[in-house]
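Our consortium's second objective concerns turning raw sequence data into structural hypotheses that experimental partners can test. To show how far this objective has progressed, the report includes one record in full. It was chosen at random from the queue rather than selected for favorable results. The single chain below, 213 residues long, was entered without modification.
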Amino acid sequence: NDIYTKGKNYSSSYGGASWNTTTCIIINGTSFADGLSVSPYAYVKHCPIFLTDASGENLDTETIDLINNEGFTKAIFIGSSNAVSDNIKTILKNNTHITSDANIDRWAGTGRYATSLDIANRLLADGDIDVSHICFATGKDFPDALSSSSLAGLTNSVLVLIDPETTSISSNLSTFISSHKSDIKLGFILGSNKTIPDSLKSKLDELITPPTP
């Protein structure tokens, strides 16, 4: 089975009363980064994640039927219109209970790392997720991060993507961490030093660790 079939089978098997929400999440089927970033929210809110095709322009018939039959009335698109096209809005409005633009939200930034921070800020504003056990994952590859991402959900913490190929922490991420430093108890890096090098880990430590009195 491919990822699309597995995703639909999961939604079909665990839908109905198990989904304690009227909201579903839609991401591009090839965008592991967006899926990772929103996974803590999906876990805490019991929201299913549905996948578009690789172009981001279409949902297949089975997925549309699932969204309709489960009675979802709101959708969150993760990523820009290049990832999840505005055509998906038209598909939903014409074929499901999600009948207006007002019930469709888009969480996005300029690129995967900015999108990750946009999601993190929205989750913190929501109030059910915090930064107490903030998780960091590479935005370049998914196996380590994907297998460990449930930690963010279990601890109700945000998961932020970082670029392992840079030599410094981005100014946006530095600002985010500094803004929430007093609420951070512990940081987790999801993956080995082959996915996120020790040099970046040290810089994250410096940002997170309170100064010595």
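The partners drew two points from this record. The mean pLDDT is 86. The longest strand covers residues 130-138. Both points have been shared with the crystallography group to help prioritize constructs.
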